[in-house]
Design brief:
Layout: E1 2-4, E2 23-27, H1 30-43, E3 47-50, E4 56-58, E5 66-70, E6 75-79, E7 85-91, H2 96-105, E8 108-109, E9 130-131, E10 134-135, E11 140-147, E12 153-157, E13 182-193, E14 199-200, H3 204-210, E15 217-218, H4 220-233, E16 255-257, H5 259-262, E17 271-274, E18 302-305, H6 307-312, E19 327-329, E20 337-339, H7 345-363, E21 372-374
Parallel strand pairs: 2-5, 3-5, 4-21
Antiparallel strand pairs: 1-2, 6-7, 7-13, 8-13, 9-10, 11-12, 11-13, 14-15, 16-18, 17-18, 19-20
């Protein structure tokens, strides 16, 4: 590891806020990353790790602790136990979109719809990144991580990460600590070998984004090209010449609410059913079986509700700013809070609180922030 002169976090995060921390370490190999974390934990420092800086909202006051920059890169190709598939082990600091480009170039399917998502590979499982109907949990096999409580490196299967809608046991939720304080060192994915030829697209959400029919066949390269173009049109593809991309992507999460709550919203509010987890079978001990099989329990699925629609229909439009503020909503997407040039974290937080209050007043729902907040309260 290398201790460097701390840089301003405004220069290392896409929301462009934050002063220089007290201490900063660079880790370019897994061994250096493990050493940096163990050293920081032994000192009792406050700490956080920094990858691409695209999912952090950092406060204006200097962070009184250590920031560890994860700069590890590399892709290792491994055999898969499943015919027609291949596994990739990727270092945590590897750029996510560079990984997607690699998979597309090598004819590997499974993450192409997540093209253009900023950040690093190690951050992807933490919030179970997804886009256009694909989520990393569909291809994630395992991660190598190091636990703060023990300092030990472990290989943890995806099934033990508590993956859900934009969450995992590793995620810092607003107002609380993660269930498991650990740092991912590498990620292993299992992908389908499909080559360069066109193939049917299974997900309706992705087909709509691509503008194709159910039976139309398209290549991975076509999917990647169209998705990146779509993200660019929404200001969600990083571009230093586009101020709408000075954001943390979607600042608020789409809400997951009971069907009864969704039914009270205006019918034009976009919503998508979230399939409940169902038990595969009902087990009745033989000694207690009396010939009666109870009917299966039926539950109405929860519903995912569009946060962007709620914002716009609470009277807040794209491009909105509070008076004399340098923070504003993207002119292209209502979910992105942007730094229009020199905005402080305080200005962005004020805008976020205003949006939350308007949506809550209009619809009775409280929007939750998606980025990790460091030294900021909403």
């Amino acid at each position: 590891m290398t201790e460097i002169a701390p840089a301003s976090l405004a220069d290392l995060t896409t929301l462009r806020t934050g002063a220089a921390p007290e201490r900063m370490l660079d880790a370019t190999t897994t061994d250096e990353l493990v050493e940096a974390l163990r050293d920081t934990w032994s000192r009792g420092d406050e700490w956080f790790v920094l990858g691409g800086g695209s999912n952090l909202f950092v406060g204006d006051e200097p962070f009184e602790g250590t920031v560890i920059r994860i700069l590890t890169t590399g892709i290792e190709r491994l055999p898969s136990p499943h015919p027609g598939r291949v596994r990739l082990r990727i270092q945590a600091g590897h750029n996510w979109d560079d990984l997607v480009a690699y998979t597309v170039d090598h004819g590997l399917a499974g993450i192409e719809a997540m093209s253009g998502i900023p950040g690093t590979v190690g951050a992807a499982p933490v919030q179970n990144v997804g886009a256009y109907g694909q989520e990393i949990q569909e291809t994630l096999v395992e991660v190598d991580l190091i636990d703060e409580s023990t300092g030990e490196v472990q290989t943890v299967p995806a099934s033990e990460l508590g993956l859900g809608f934009r969450t995992s046991v590793l995620k810092h939720h607003y107002g609380g600590a993660p269930i498991r304080r650990a740092v991912i060192l590498s990620v292993t994915l299992d992908l389908a070998e499909v080559g360069e030829a066109g193939r049917p697209i299974g997900g309706e959400q992705l087909r709509r984004a691509l503008g194709i029919d159910d039976d139309e066949r398209v290549s991975l390269a076509h999917v990647r090209e169209r998705i990146r173009a779509t993200r660019a049109a929404k200001g969600m593809l990083l571009n230093p010449d586009d101020p709408d991309t000075a954001s943390a992507g979607s600042f608020f999460q789409n809400l997951i609410v009971p069907e009864t709550v969704a039914a009270q919203l205006p019918p034009e509010c976009p919503r998508w059913p979230v399939e409940p987890d169902l038990d595969a079978a009902t087990v009745i001990p033989l000694e207690s079986f009396d010939g009666y099989v109870p009917p299966a329990k039926t539950t109405r699925p929860d519903v995912k509700v569009s946060a962007a629609w709620l914002i716009e229909n609470s009277g807040i439009r794209k491009g909105f700013r509070l008076p004399r503020s340098r923070a504003g909503i993207s002119t292209k997407h209502a979910l992105a809070l942007t730094n229009r040039g020199g905005a402080t974290a305080g200005e962005l937080a004020e805008l976020a609180r205003y949006i939350q209050a308007r949506v809550h007043s209009e619809f009775g729902l409280l929007l939750q922030p998606e980025p990790v907040l460091v030294g900021v309260e909403l």
